[in-house]
Amino acid sequence: xAPTAAVETTTPGELMQRLTDDNLTIIxxxxxxxxxxxxxxxxxNVPLALLSEHTRELADRLGDGVxxxxxxxxxxxxAQHRLASVGLTGATVLAGGVSAFESAGGxxxxxxxxxxxxxxxxxxxGSLVLASFLGSKLIHPRLGLLAGAIGAGLTYSALSDSCAxxxxxxxxxxxxxxxxxxxxxxxxxxxxxxxxxxxxxx
Length: 202
Prior knowledge:
The chain is of the alpha/beta class and 202 residues long. It has two domains: 9-114 and 176-189, Oxidized Rhodanese, domain 1; 117-169, no CATH class. The protein contains ten helices and seven strands. Helix 1 packs across helix 6. It is elongated and about 65 Å long. The model has no long low-confidence stretch (mean pLDDT 83).
């Protein structure tokens, strides 16, 4: 397996200084529910799943002043690698995610409060493993196989850089929003970055 390219980051302080930059585009790759709960003003919500499916289309609209945001930086790093694979190499990841930005004194917009998706995944996986262990002791030993299945799923999630549990949890009632972004609405909402003007020699 080829080594993963290093993640280029932007600190919360650096992002705060750049907020008045006309060339700045902040792309938040969390789920619509997470975005609704807390986001940086002026950012665009492009869930990682949609970005992965329409990477080329989105990259064609973005310039070098892109900062990718998620809860902690992990999903934003994945988005950076996908954009880099189609030639957009100027995007950086907000170090520490939106929570670090808020902690550093950055302005955020708050809505209905929900747990971040990575926290929901940890809660669901941990609860299933605990239930499997208790069930194997109190009901039937074969119930312990569920813990093995969860472990296998988490291992595959890490190897494939995907998460079926997160995809399932995102469809739960508490994670639904009034309007979820579509590829078409996202592309239309993000302004096309100005292209550099070629200087012709005389």
